[in-house]
Amino acid sequence: MAAQFPEVMKMYKYHKPDTWLDKIDLNIMPYVDAPEWENRYPTISALLMSNANKRKLQRISAGLTAALSRLAEALRTNNNGAMPFNLFNMTDKLTPYILADNSDHVSYISRLDFVKNTDGCYKLVEINSDTPCALPETFYANKVAEAYFAKEYGLDLQPRSDGEELAEPFLKLLEQAKYADKDVVRIAFAADKSYSEDWANAKFLFERVQEVLRERILSKQPFVCRLVGLDELIVHDDGVYIPNEIFKSKEDKLDILYRLHPLELLMDDESEDGYPVGLKLMELANFGAVDLVNPVKSIVLQNKALLALAWYLYQHRLFWTPQEEELIAAHLTPTYLDSKPLAGQRYIKKPIFGREGAGIAIVEPNGALSYEAEECDDCDLIYQQFVPSADVQQETDNGEVTGKYTYSCFVINGKASETFVRLQPGEITGVEAYFVPVLDEK
After folding, report:
1. Degrees, nearest 5: CA angle 259-261-262
2. Cβ pair 398, 97 in contact under 8 A
3. Tell me: the pLDDT tens digits for 235-258?
4. Could you give the dihedral angle defined by the CA atoms of residues 168, 264, 419 and 330, in that order, rounded to the nearest 10 degrees?
5. How far apart are CA 344 and CA 27, in angstroms?
6. What pLDDT does 287 receive?
7. Does the reported pTM lie above 0.85?
């Protein structure tokens, strides 16, 4: 009986009734709640963002994406000692595929994460350019909150995007000459079915892109979109395939693949007989046999060591244009490959490929650790000046929570899109952070 008690307690976890959370479709966003969480993932109250603040964040995000993408391309295409590519720990396994990638954008869909300091200035702390998530939160749940709060409180709000722009990378890829005479272009959206958040993100993108493509190009370019598990992808020497929907013994060759699977994991993926399916997939992408979203070189933009290089080049007045220098000085958090420049200050050390707060530590001016997260596999670190931010409050099922905001902005094909906000009860944004719905003032 005692062994069952924790499960009984979970059944009676308090959910505040009659809130905007009741309007969320769990088929679209199934990870609103989990048995091990104290509260549901979204906050009950919302953040009202001024039009000026939103536009500022979008301008900063688009500008930094352009500048850092230019640096990533210079680093990638001038691998002759002028740019220290070996600093980036891409490994001998991954580097050749990065160098051979000639995609139009370093990343098609990126999410930039910022902390707003106590002076009200947005400071970039990292970029998610390989496998950015939070698409349902940003483009669906925020719309649900917008409708609810506008009706319940009579707010006159600026309508947010429902994610139509997420189709732009696919529309652009479909314009390629190689698809002009094809009977049908096959597009697949792949993620791990066992991980509800990844699967929901891939499903949301699949449904949104398919809807937009049907509206815009069906008469011009026949296409088929499929949502598949990662384990359904079949990699051959000549291309990437998935099982035919009707005749499972047959295979359909893909033209475009959205993969919600990190490259640092993909590069080690092998079949049961030892065939290097991950590396072969990247090779096929570089040969033009399949178009990847996001492309292989997106990992360079996500690598936190790029921020350290960007800051070094700014400090030494190298590489950047005057406009880029101004942007970087104001909005890039000072970042280093060594902790010495931050001695005597409060700073954060992070693994260059860490995700969801894994492996992060806060180092106090005396060198002591005031916070240390569970270690992650990657051991190469960057050292980033700590950005102090104001305490904020939001309401949850069990009452008011005080914490810090992380502001995010999606950038799609170089254009700034919608915002996404989280509230972290502590000082490092991790898996326990709350999603805060954003309402846009007119």
Report:
1. 125
2. no
3. 999 999 999 988 878 999 999 999
4. -110
5. 49
6. 94
7. yes
